[in-house]
Specification:
The protein has 190 residues and is of the alpha+beta class. It is built from four helices and 13 strands. Strands 11-12-7-13 form a four-stranded antiparallel β-sheet, with helices on one face. The radius of gyration is 22 Å and the shape is elongated. It starts with a helix and ends with a helix.
């Protein structure tokens, strides 16, 4: 990670970045606006169209190894913010199973996942959702946001409603995900 942490973050033309005196990086672009507080042991500078992160040697509040870890962490977080506000992040989930459905009204999603009751999930305003149900295809849930971390948390929450199981492969999967299948009891009896 040390190789990546030293690379500057390039700023696209449609994005504006400001660094406040309290070491808070604010990023604004066509998809949204985000901000991140940076630890005092890391210096952040905007030079030309790049964000440069350096370790503050005068700050002795943490040890050197922790400073190096913060260096890569905050560089990665700010890079994700720049990509998020300029391009955005998209995750696609697939419902595999007989009778599994998902419908949405605004940011409220209703799931039918084989339980006796339907599951309702209210998404944050930063996440946009679209559901697709086509004949002879598994239902799809398409989630889009500028915040990569929030999008991952929402996907993990949806996936936790019905985790993919290894025997029949049913559950909530990411599109393109391969499930390691088990043979079951009948394979060992022969």
């Amino acid at each position: 990670m040390s190789r990546i942490g030293k690379l500057p973050v390039s700023i696209p033309a449609s994005v504006t970045v400001t660094v406040s005196a309290e070491n808070v990086v604010s990023v604004k672009g066509p998809k949204g606006e985000m901000s991140q507080a940076v630890h005092p042991s890391i210096n952040v500078e905007v030079v030309d169209s790049e964000i440069i992160f350096t370790i503050n040697e005068q700050n002795d509040s943490v040890e050197t190894k922790q400073k190096q870890a913060f260096h890569g962490l905050y560089r990665s977080l700010v890079h994700n913010m720049v990509v998020g506000v300029s391009e955005g992040y998209v995750k696609k989930l697939e419902l595999v199973g007989v009778g599994f459905r998902a419908t949405n009204q605004g940011n409220l999603i209703e799931f039918a996942l084989g339980y006796t009751h339907n599951i309702f999930l209210q998404l944050p305003n930063e996440v946009k959702v679209e559901t697709k149900s086509e004949r002879n295809q598994n239902p799809l849930i398409i989630l889009e946001s500028c915040d990569k971390q929030l999008l991952g948390q929402v996907c993990a929450k949806i996936r936790s409603f019905r985790m993919p199981e290894p025997y029949k492969g049913k559950g909530v999967l990411f599109v393109g995900e391969q499930i390691r299948r088990k043979s079951g009891k009948s394979a060992g009896a022969k």
